[in-house]
């Protein structure tokens, strides 16, 4: 059992306010991912939870106990650093067993626990080595092993995979997900890689400028971003935005005029929308479809062929739009294309970039990784 | 067979490359030779006075004041006389106790100070460091009177404890500075990982910081020993006989009866011999420590 609650948590370094009142609820065994652009305060927030950084205001509560004034070790957490932070003068075994040594655990028991953790991570052949003699991926596994040995109530990871090459990153990502299942531990994971966030998280926390922009399951953030920032941050390639004008709005949706003059009715709550109001239409590249009858028209300026898929970049009203289309399209640069989208796939953003709520909730919006697994075992 | 089919271009290219490589190599070798020569020159200039002192120690007094010459019959006469006039071992023991004692004391004070400055800095840390260093710019003689009076009133004159205290204070700024830079080079996360693992501040220092910065600490200690060993101003002013170290021993041979070059040289050679040997034995460590940050 390990839960974490953040209550209006604030962090200031002198006059710099880095974390500006964060509320968060982390459930037992949940895998929570903090994402956000560089400098938004992800690491700072994680370090505050760890106890490495003091809290300027608000409460950090672990398992119902306020821990603001407890030291890092007393909070019973373990952290994996981006730079691994292994002890360079100790062997892998001593690195992993250091916390137990400090806790005055007998040498025999210590060895047993280190061996258990080493087995989970396939580190047994490396136990006698010093960190210098390990590859990046092996060092990362030792750092994770060191965390496992402590048997912490919550694991904290600060961009643990960002120093690894792409292939290893995918492998470690899967390994971490497996570890999460195996250890049944609560994990908080910081990354700026939104693929890691989407694939690993039960719950994603999107941060910007020290403020939580949205908290939700990956599918919820993808299908129901609360504002323009989250919409643009989650999903790759980035969502396209088009300036549009509201023609009419009611409870059934909002009718907008797209560049080119056609109107489209987007199924979002439109009671508040006034005629003539400037809005922004957001459509993901994968939801734009080539369509000779489509409402949008532009000429292709760049083509990127990925094999299975092709990205078409078109210019429209000075904005560059991206279309993810079938890999076998035969278009060339300079071709005029017409394209459109399913109105239900589109998003509308009003004042201050806030999204107008969809009329219908996406069926997968509440899906978690646990659900994925349940479904697959049911099928099998 | 294949070589005959290669085109002219691809044959010529490597040859041209080799030519360029050879001339570059020659230039590099010439530069290396020049630098080596320069290095030897500087080393000889630095070493010459020491060499002359050692040579003079083996001459008779008459030879020593005669025209400089390298042709003479070596004699231990001066050494014997020097030893008759003063007990070398007593002075040497004082030097050992005071320089190692003050170094140990300075390290004991400097490790926590440098830890605090490196890992828990405040707005004033930089200022404090600069202020500490600035005390080294003050000529020692400027504080001679107050220190002398303090020593007199506390009964510290001509005691090894007194001299140890002065040397500790004298070297402390440098020792703190050096440790500070070595500590600062250590990635913070390693200590933070230790703290997550449950290490107390003491355990953090003992199990992580000290072992990881040992080369730096060792070279700092060596430098402090050498500086204390060679210090003359305070030892001459604050000691007379009981606690006098080797620097005072040398000075005692430039006596009112006149200068005796051979005896002075013999005494000086004996005074610097231990630290010279010590420095030579530890030079690898010194260099490694002083370039610790650069080559890590
Ligand atoms: N000790 C400090 N003093 C002053 N400002 C700090 C301090 N530590 C961090 N900051 C500031 O706080 C902000 C958030 O930093 P943080 O390291 O949490 O960002 P991050 O989201 O982890 O970014 P990245 O993705 O680049 O790691 C930054 O603007 C940084 O400059
Ligand atoms: Mg960070």
TrEMBL record, chain A:
Coiled-coil blocks: none
Domain of life the protein comes from: Bacteria
A Pfam family reported for this protein in Swiss-Prot or TrEMBL: TOBE_2
InterPro entries according to UniProt: AAA+_ATPase (IPR003593), ABC_transporter-like_ATP-bd (IPR003439), ABC_transporter-like_CS (IPR017871), ABC_transpr_MalK-like (IPR015855), ABC_transpr_MalK/UgpC-like (IPR047641), Mo/tungstate-bd_C_term_dom (IPR008995), NA-bd_OB-fold (IPR012340), P-loop_NTPase (IPR027417)
CDD domains cross-referenced by the UniProt entry: ABC_MalK_N
Domain ABC transporter: from-to ranges: 4-234
Keyword list, A-Z: ATP-binding, Nucleotide-binding, Sugar transport, Transport
ATP-binding among keywords: yes
Keyword Membrane: no
Stated name of the protein: ABC transporter
Lineage per the UniProt record: Bacteria, Pseudomonadati, Pseudomonadota, Gammaproteobacteria, Oceanospirillales
TrEMBL record, chain B:
Spans traversing the lipid bilayer: 33-55, 91-117, 129-149, 161-183, 204-229, 260-281
UniProt GO BP: transmembrane transport
Subcellular location: Cell membrane
Residue ranges constituting the ABC transmembrane type-1 domain according to the UniProt record: 92-282
Lineage: superkingdom: Bacteria
GO cellular component terms attached to this protein's record: plasma membrane
Keywords from the named record: Cell membrane, Membrane, Transmembrane, Transmembrane helix, Transport
UniProt topology in membrane: Multi-pass membrane protein
Secretion signal span: none
Entry similarity comment: Belongs to the binding-protein-dependent transport system permease family. MalFG subfamily.
The protein's name: Carbohydrate ABC transporter permease
Lineage per the UniProt record: Bacteria, Pseudomonadati, Pseudomonadota, Gammaproteobacteria, Oceanospirillales
